[in-house]
Amino acid sequence: MCRSIKVLRRAGETVTEEELRLAALQFVRKISGFPKPSKANQEVFDRGVREVAEASRKLLESLQVR
Question: Phi/psi of residue 56, each to 5°?
Fold first, then answer.
């Protein structure tokens, strides 16, 4: 995976929806191999970003940090 993906979990800080969306966008771009999807793939690309952001939010909310 790309080394430039930023860590979103920071002690005492809440991750914003925008940070989640941008991280998800970066992940979907990397996985799909498309920096920008074609018009034919835009809908599925956007859905992938939303789903990855939602899964990431759930993960971060569920982590138990000491």
Answer: -65, -40
Q: Which of 20, 25, 18, 29 is nearest to 7 (CA)?
A: 20
pLDDT of 1-42, one tens digit each? Answer: 455 566 777 767 788 899 999 999 999 999 999 999 999 999
pLDDT for residue 1: 46
Q: Which among 18, 13, 22 is positioned nearest to 4, based on CA atoms?
A: 22
Q: Are 8 and 25 in contact (CB under 8 A)?
A: no
Residues with Cβ within 8 Å of residue 17, at least 6 apart in sequence: 53, 57
**What sign results for the dihedral spanned by CA atoms 48, 50, 51, 56?**
positive
**What are the structural domain ranges in the chain?**
20-60
pTM recorded for the entire structure: 0.83
